[in-house]
Amino acid sequence: MTIMIEKPSLATRDPKELLNAVRARIAHLTVNILDDGMSIWDREVALLLRDEVDTRETAERILGNAVMYMIASMENPDVHIGVGRIVDKGVHQVILDTPVYFAFCDLYNGGRYKHHAPFIKRRSDGLVIRTADFLRSVGFTPDEELWAKDGADCSPCDSKVPDSH
Hints:
Blueprint: H1 15-20, H2 30-34, H3 40-51, H4 56-75, E1 83-84, H5 85-96, H6 98-108, H7 127-137, H8 144-149, E2 154-155
Antiparallel strand pairs: 1-2
């Protein structure tokens, strides 16, 4: 018997759909994650509202752009991209919800854990704007305002760490 594991179809570039698709892969602490009846998207938005932002609209914008960035970094490990302070809040939210992040890595990174290894010192070389441009080139629609606000102030990660973003 041969079992083939197919990579998920990425025909959709809707961050909400892409994040909700990890639900079936969540294997740890499922009572905490799945038993409240919320979608994964709504869960992460609620956690951002609890800890980081004031409005649902802002939380959804941040989370959507974080999902775009995380998937683009997994699909394109050799491309150096980075986020600013605002979108980084969404990246950190997903990573901190470890059962969700493990499922995210399982689905979008071939089951390999993708490290997040930020440097202390920020970069001011326009990497954030170039990242927004890159996201557009791979079929996403980044929020121009969020990326432009931090355009010259990046929260870079160490690209030399194996499989980091």
